[in-house]
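Need residues for this backbone.
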């Protein structure tokens, strides 16, 4: 699973840690959680303020990433929902949450950006250095699908609005 830790803008001691529990789990699979940590508490040893907070509660994939907002201070936290073969894969939702000096906005900006090939929920989601592009890399292990198959899906990303657009599939 991919895990990211982001400092709260304007606060040198509070960090948010985002961690998915992939959909394959029995009890709580498919959720994106976050924890809040005060790194300066306990004489610098840190203290967990809250944990197991649910940000996305259904069909979360492993894909979680972050990129700085266009204002240069805040951050976008991005999560990718798993779309099963029996669902309408035309929806392909990507969720963006804003982390600012006020804390985490738990109401996401959702981009529905069109049809994708079947995915297994694993793999990676990354941003280009300038944040204008994002890539979803899906790898199918040979034990599950055709020998080492997969694809890359590229997107445009607007780091002012948190929206994704213009998907391009690279087989």
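Answer:
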């Amino acid at each position: 699973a991919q895990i990211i830790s982001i400092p709260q803008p304007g606060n040198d001691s509070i960090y948010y840690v985002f961690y998915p529990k992939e959909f394959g789990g029995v009890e709580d699979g498919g959720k994106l959680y976050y924890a809040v940590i005060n790194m300066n508490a306990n004489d610098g040893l840190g203290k967990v303020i809250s944990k197991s907070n649910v940000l996305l509660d259904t069909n979360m994939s492993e894909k979680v990433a972050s990129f700085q907002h266009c204002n240069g201070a805040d951050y976008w936290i991005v999560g990718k929902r798993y779309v099963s073969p029996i669902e309408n894969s035309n929806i392909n939702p990507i969720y963006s949450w804003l982390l600012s000096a006020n804390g985490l906005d738990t109401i996401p900006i959702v981009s529905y950006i069109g049809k994708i090939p079947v995915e297994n929920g694993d793999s990676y989601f990354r941003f280009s250095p300038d944040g204008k592009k994002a890539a979803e890399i899906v790898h199918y292990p040979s034990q599950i699908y055709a020998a080492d198959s997969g694809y890359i899906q590229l997107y445009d990303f607007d780091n002012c609005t948190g929206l994704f657009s213009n998907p391009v599939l690279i087989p």
